[in-house]
Amino acid sequence: MRFPDPLIRGRLVRRYKRFLSDVELPSGHQVVAHCANPGSMLGLAEPGMEVWLSPARNPARKLKYTWELVDAGSGLVGINTGHPNAIVAEALAAGKVPELAGYGGLLREVRYGRNSRIDILLEHDGRPLCYVEIKSVTLKRGAEAAEFPDAVTQRGAKHLAELSEMAESGARAVMFFLVQRSDCARLEIAGDIDPGYQDALQSALGRGVEAMCYTCKVAPEAIELDRGLALAL
Q1: What confidence tier does 183 reach under pLDDT thresholds 50, 70, 90?
Q2: What distance in Å separates the CA atoms of residue 186 and residue 45, rounded to the nearest whole number?
Q3: CATH of 8-76, one of 3.40.640.10, 3.40.50.300, 1.25.40.10, 2.40.50.580
Q4: With contact defined as beta carbons under 8 Å apart, do 193 and 149 qualify?
Q5: Out of 41, 56, 92, 175, which residue is the most buried by the measure of CB atoms under 10 Å away?
Q6: What pTM was computed for the model?
Q7: Was domain 84-232 assigned CATH 3.40.50.300?
Q8: In this structure, are residues 75 and 32 in contact, taking their beta carbons and an 8 Å threshold?
Q9: How far apart are CA 188 and CA 172, in angstroms?
Q10: Using an 8 Å Cβ cutoff, are 68 and 54 in contact?
Q11: d(Cα 219, Cα 4) in Å, to the nearest integer?
């Protein structure tokens, strides 16, 4: 997924009200940028961190910038949770996910479950439907492991229950963790942050849900799927 316009470098002044951030540009001018991330962004929203913003293409938009990347010290991290579906869809179309190869059709945001929409639905004649739920991963507290979630997510547990129902009905159901950073050797579930999600994932795996995890190459020009990671439960 390439950014349509060059990103703008700045320094984070503060993140506040969850979806807002103040950023100082190299000129010294301070702007307000949309923060498209509902999580805690633990370790990624400290004042003074180097960040990258995308300019809004719509001149009528109230906020003229969106926070896209942050330098975590060990590399860049993509923090915009609006991008993972497109990143994974692009990778699937290019055949970069062998576990999900062989499907002729790809649909996005299809209604299923209890008033939900599946991120990606894969279909092919003669094969069961494949439901793919995608979660953006940004948290890293130790030397090697990415972690999910970074905040309590009842919605995430709900998605796991609905995936489980799809798997038990005969469909294929996949929980796809997309790590928007490249400095991790494995993915762990942050049970200390949300034990309910950890239990929900264990239950879902026992009911036939598959779990996959991939890292990303993150640069100011683009974010692309990179390599698979082991999931340590």
Answers
A1: very high
A2: 23
A3: 2.40.50.580
A4: yes
A5: 175
A6: 0.96
A7: no
A8: no
A9: 23
A10: yes
A11: 13
Q: Which residue has the tokens 């923090």?
A: 79
pLDDT band at 181 (very low <50, low <70, confident <90, very high): very high
State the pLDDT at residue 59.
Answer: 87
